[in-house]
Write a structure and sequence with these properties.
The chain has about 60 residues and is mainly alpha-helical. It contains two helices and no strands. Helix 1 packs antiparallel against helix 2. It is elongated. The two termini are about 15 Å apart.
């Protein structure tokens, strides 16, 4: 059960990363600063997704 809860928490963390990216880029698209913000938002998204993937691999390793 605990493993499933940790996996679910990782799914939520991944979704949160995508929502953060979306919020950052949509807000700046309206102000015309999208080109300035998007590279930062994309880098931040990739950083967070890599962290989630590392944690997910840790769960798989622990289960084996």
């Amino acid at each position: 059960m605990e493993r499933e809860e940790r996996y679910e928490a990782l799914l939520i963390e991944e979704a949160d990363a995508w929502f953060e990216y979306l919020e950052a880029t949509q807000a700046e698209a309206a102000t015309g600063r999208y080109d300035e913000v998007e590279p930062w938002a994309w880098a931040r998204l990739n950083q967070r997704l890599r962290a989630v993937e590392r944690k997910r691999r840790g769960l798989s390793t622990a289960a084996a």
